[in-house]
Design brief:
two-stranded parallel sheet; 10 strands
Amino acid sequence: MAKVRISKGKFGGINASANDRGVIAALAMDQRGSLQKMIAKASTSGVTPTAEDLTRFKAAVTHVLSPHASAILLDPEYSLPALKDKAAQTGLLLAYEKSGYDTTAKGRLPDLLPEWSVRRLAEAGADAIKLLVHYNPEDAPGINTVKQAFIERIGDECVAVDVPLFLEIVCYDDSLDEKGLEFARRKPGIVARYMAEFSRPRYGVDVLKVESPVNMKFVAGTRAFGGTAAYSRAEALAHFRDAASAATKPFIYLSAGVSDEVFRETLELAIEAGTAFSGVLCGRATWQDGVAAFANQGYNALEAWLADRGAQNIEALNQILARGATPWWSIYGGRDNIEVI
């Protein structure tokens, strides 16, 4: 394999987000609107959380759990005060997109935080930039062309500042229940197609943050199986392999809001399939059960929960990654095959 050339800033930023093995064991705490809804739902008093409440929640997670992670993903809207609580050795990713998507137009079009740029995020301390885009390869060409051009612009911005781009792709279909059986059947092909598409050099993506190609609820023979099968275990393993083979960039898995138990089983299945994933960027699966403690008992109760169960959750993930994740540079033939320029 010919040597792969990677710029000094991008190489350093990815490494800052990874552990000594080159595996990305990252924690996601960039939720905004969804976090507000979670806290409000968990509150027995029915109080809507304030911006200060979101910041305090993020500060607790950052303080307690960042020492257990190779990197933490935060947002610049509510999380900047939490940076003082981040472990010094833990890398920092900052989200660039607005929370949610445009609900007034077809296609779940993304938008950026208007007061931020890649340069400003880097100046705030980001080792890497995270961008979330909802994507369905079967959408109308006009919709996908807009999204592709959008990602190209952010990719070029990251090249100009010499900082890595972590692209999070979430698939959808507005005509289907995305937690249902039919969407589960279609999901493997969608994930494989978007992994192939956004591996193309024109987008400037450095790490793909992707979904599991299967919905574990519909995988027969798993602990998460709900009783109706979209795929056998053998078919699920093949879907993991097919999606992985579509990528020519390092990729990591997102937890997509499932429980810590389901996410760990997902990773175990990926390992069984021989999938060369390079880690995780895991959010709610790690800390979501602490929301009720915060909503009803406050900051100290959340810190106590995080120090106990939250730390156990993230360390359990780290053990799985130590057993089966591959260094991010493996897809390029190994670290020695990379020429830093």
